[in-house]
Amino acid sequence: MKKEHLLFEIGCEDLPAWVGDHFINRFMPIFLDELRKNRLVSREIMFFFTPRRLILLGKDIPVCTVEEEKEVTGPKYDVAFDSSGVPTPAAYGFAKAQGVSVSALKIKQTNEKRFVYISKKIPSISSIKIFSCIIPSMLRRLDIPRGMRWNESGEIFYRPVRWIFAIFGNEKVPMEFGGVKSSQNTFGHRVLSPGRIRIYNWVDYFDKIEKAFVIPDEKIRYSFIIELIKKSLRENETFDSGIVENLSNLVEYPRVIRCKFPDLRYNLPEDILSVLVEKAKGIPIFCGKSIQKEFFVISDGNCSDTIGKNYENLLRTRILDAQFFYETDLSQSFYDFRNKLEKIVFHQRWGSLLDRVNRMKKISAIISDILGLGNDEKNILTRAAELSKYDMASEMVREFPDLQGIMGAIYAGVSGECQQVCKAISEHVRPRFSGDSLPESTFGVLLGIVDRIDYLCCFISAGVDVSGSEDPYGLRRVSVALFQLVYKSGYDFDYEDIIDKIFIVYQFSASELDATKNRIKNFLLQRFESYLETEGFPKGLRGSVLSVERLNFLRARNKLDAIRSFIRETADVDTILIPVTRVANILKQAKEKNIDIPDFKRELLKEDGEVELIMVADKYLGVLKDLLEKKNFSEFLRMLEDLKTPIDRFFDKILVMCPEENLRGNRLALLKMFNDVFLKFADFSYIKEEDIKNVEKN
Questions:
Q1: What angle do CA 585, 588, 593 make, to 5 degrees?
Q2: Could you state a single Gene Ontology molecular function term (predicted)?
Q3: pLDDT digits (tens, 9 = 90+) for 29-73
Q4: Do 507 and 426 fall into the same domain?
């Protein structure tokens, strides 16, 4: 069948940088589901984003659906017809629902039961007709935070829609959304090429908009900016390329301008200057670890001196403000901020920021004991926790919230606190956003974990929920930061146990204690599974490990890494896992049949297969337990290859579910010895063939 490319573009007013990721994460699942429902498939789907347009390209989609015949099963025969063969109301109702007469009903036999059914022809439908209907419908189904209405249509979108371009092959896809009808026209860069552009096919589209100064691919824009900056760098100068990624989503045709710091007298620390430049949408320039008195800005198509001067004036204003607030803060003792924390509300139930730092200090002490930290290390962590939010009462952080942590470290250092405490205060707020750097010091990591645990416990216990795109308190972001910090820490501990032990800090009533603990644990488990999904672990792998580890985040991740590597590096891995899964499944069947499994008795062994398997158990099970104790998960999995043949032979030779109760119980007990060891690693019965294929493919 002939295939064509679908290309559509939604042109908008200035879109925020976060819209691209949000749109593709929400729209793509809906789009794929609609393709499946309408019996269509695309070889590849590509998405592009600029601050003025959202672009989707679906390659090689059939021009129409295939005509097919479908069976629709109705009620059982004895429900549809009485004993005399006369149709009942059920038969008439089914026929009416399917748009046929009762005489068109047919009868089929399924598992010794008879059902009535009809054969229904599903006609071929033009793909253009399908897209005309589903694309506007999908746009209306998007869950958009802070969406806008802009005309009498009442439609909600990220920003007002100004044009819609949509073609399939070389034909227009007619549709309407937000009072805007689709066409075969798009527009170039707003300043450099603002005119209307007629498009005839997908190749023509990309050729013409690039000539009209629009770079649709954000990855190419990012690389383009990096190259422009590198050409402008002087000897020994460096910059943080991570800043560029967000800025590349604010322009369609980037130009790089080198600007100068204002000629002012100020004594702001370099960490503050760096943040001020970033807040002004600039990119700081460094020589070694020292910030230079110049910075880059990214302009959209225009690189005139006026643009550069505007950014320089903006930075001038920010530096003047920061200098005033910095001097105001230094005019008082850092420790005086403690009293001000009592007047800053953290949460209606959980009190002020002073209450919060008191909780964090207690949690730090509990976690120090759990981790086995020495007294000196414990004192550093608890001191950092006590001082961690003092800067929230400072003028600098009130005016520039991104300086939280940085200002606390600076003021603590001026007040004579040790370097480790200062560094922990500075680092504990990271990561602040996706892609942000993690703390470098152990105390920074641990304090970050304490901070996130307290935040999550407070808001979840207060009944805050996360649903759809609604997450007003950032619980998703905070939980992801927690997982990343746990990975970084290297401490292999079960956070289920940690939550149990720190709950003494919150003084819940006896009636709400268990329910609140479970709500927090279930939230973390759900968020951890979602996070693992974003890291590319298939559902079966996630289920197999989380059924055992639950909230031991680091160990779960290490086990999943080991399983993924094992699958990729091992030929016929499914044949190795099948015997392990058979052991788990037969024990599950025994449990479903309420068969009690007694203690294993060697004297009941009769068959060669049983004797061989107990010899394998004697040889391997102790070794496997030792490997788990040492957390050598890769070697544990490799040893499963040695168990494949004897377990297969056992099932081939031995009837486990035999009539003799004592033999059946003993054989199940023998298999349970193996399964108990397997379950200390994972429940392999969760892993399906499609999970293995997904790992191999990716």
A1: 130
A2: ATP binding
A3: 899 999 999 999 999 999 999 999 999 999 999 999 988 888 888
A4: yes
